[in-house]
UniProtKB/TrEMBL annotation:
InterPro entries from the UniProt entry: DNA_glycosylase, Endonuclease-III-like_CS2, Endonuclease3_FeS-loop_motif, Endouclease-III_FeS-bd_BS, HhH-GPD_domain, HhH_base_excis_C, HhH_motif, Nth
Keyword Lipid metabolism assigned: no
Keywords: 4Fe-4S, DNA damage, DNA repair, DNA-binding, Endonuclease, Glycosidase, Hydrolase, Iron, Iron-sulfur, Lyase, Metal-binding, Nuclease
Source organism (scientific name): Streptacidiphilus monticola
Cofactor mode of binding and number, as noted: Binds 1 [4Fe-4S] cluster.
Residue ranges occupied by any HhH-GPD domain in the UniProt entry: 63-210
Lineage of origin: Bacteria, Bacillati, Actinomycetota, Actinomycetes, Kitasatosporales
GO molecular function: class I DNA-(apurinic or apyrimidinic site) endonuclease activity
Name the UniProt record assigns to this protein: Endonuclease III
Known EC number: 4.2.99.18
Cofactor: [4Fe-4S] cluster
Signal peptide: none
Enzyme class, UniProt record, top EC level: lyase
Length: 284
């Protein structure tokens, strides 16, 4: 006889668990299916950093290392009000700059990068953000990931942005086995048409932040579970999984203070509250 309080048997999924594709052709097909499915789940996927121009996106992306986009979005309005151009930021007092960006963490190193990249923009690029990968990665604090964010979202140059979420999901989908972001980028480039690279990056990162978390993926509430060879890596009970959903999928605000018009969730709050601190402590 079942004792009271004993949980019911796990709910079986309404699909046969997908296998890791065995051939490159099968992997290409699976990757494109997942991309199309994610496009339906997140038709409004977008960069989650608030920005109005290339310089702001570059600065915000440098600040986003090891913190949430929300934290950056709550920090940059005061920063850009005080230093609106590369020339203004290049002349910033380092201590004042550190104080302004302190909430984003690693503020001494980030301040050094911002001062260095602003000076380079002012002195070597006529105060403009350059539009090529080769030039962008010469700027202090700017690696391939940051460069691809700027290229894809300001200059319309397709790029795959491999952050912690993208790398994790690429491995869960079987798109790459590597922990090296550059190798993951190359592996995925071989699977998805170039024209899709920037939007694929947004969709995958959206999914990683909302549903396919690092520690507790919400498999039981995942709309692409039937395509995913890693189904079962996390909670499969639909009711329990539903509770793990974040941002608009969990009925909560997003990360942007100024989200795009088609974003179905609410804008984030200007001030950081206790709930945001919890998010920071978890996944960026
Ligand atoms: S949440 Fe689970 S089923 Fe969905 S993509 Fe992640 S690992 Fe796969």
């Amino acid at each position: 006889m079942a004792k009271s309080g004993v949980s019911a048997a796990p709910v079986k999924p309404a699909f046969k668990k997908a296998k890791f594709p065995a051939t490159h052709t099968a992997l290409v097909r699976q990757a494109r299916k997942i991309n199309r499915a994610l496009a339906e789940v997140y038709p409004y996927a977008h960069p989650e950093l608030d920005f109005e121009n290339a310089f702001q996106l570059l600065v915000a992306t440098v600040l986003s290392a090891q913190t949430t986009d929300l934290r950056v979005n709550q920090t940059t309005p005061a920063l850009f009000a005080k230093y609106p151009t590369p020339a203004a930021l290049a002349d910033a007092n380092p201590e004042e700059l550190e104080e302004l960006i302190r909430p984003t963490g690693f503020f001494r190193n980030k301040a050094k990068s911002l001062l260095g990249l602003s000076k380079a923009l002012r002195d070597d690029f006529g105060g403009e953000v350059p539009g090529t990968l080769a030039e962008l990665v010469t700027l202090p604090g700017v690696g391939r990931k940051t460069a691809n964010v700027v290229l894809g979202n300001v200059f319309g140059v397709p790029g795959i942005t491999v952050d912690t979420h993208f790398g994790r999901l690429a491995r869960r989908f079987g798109w790459s086995q590597s922990e090296d972001p550059v190798v993951v980028e190359q592996d995925v480039m071989a699977l998805i048409p170039k024209s899709e690279w920037t939007m694929l990056s947004h969709r995958v990162v959206f999914h990683g932040r909302r549903i396919c978390h690092a520690q507790k993926p919400a498999c039981g509430a995942c709309p692409i579970a039937g395509l995913c060879p890693s189904y079962g890596a996390g909670e499969t009970d639909p009711v329990k999984a539903e509770k793990l959903l974040k941002y608009e999928k969990g009925g909560k605000p997003g990360q942007r203070l100024k989200p795009p018009a088609d974003f179905p969730g609410e804008a984030a709050a200007r001030q950081t509250g206790p709930q945001d601190m919890a998010t920071d402590a978890g996944e960026a």
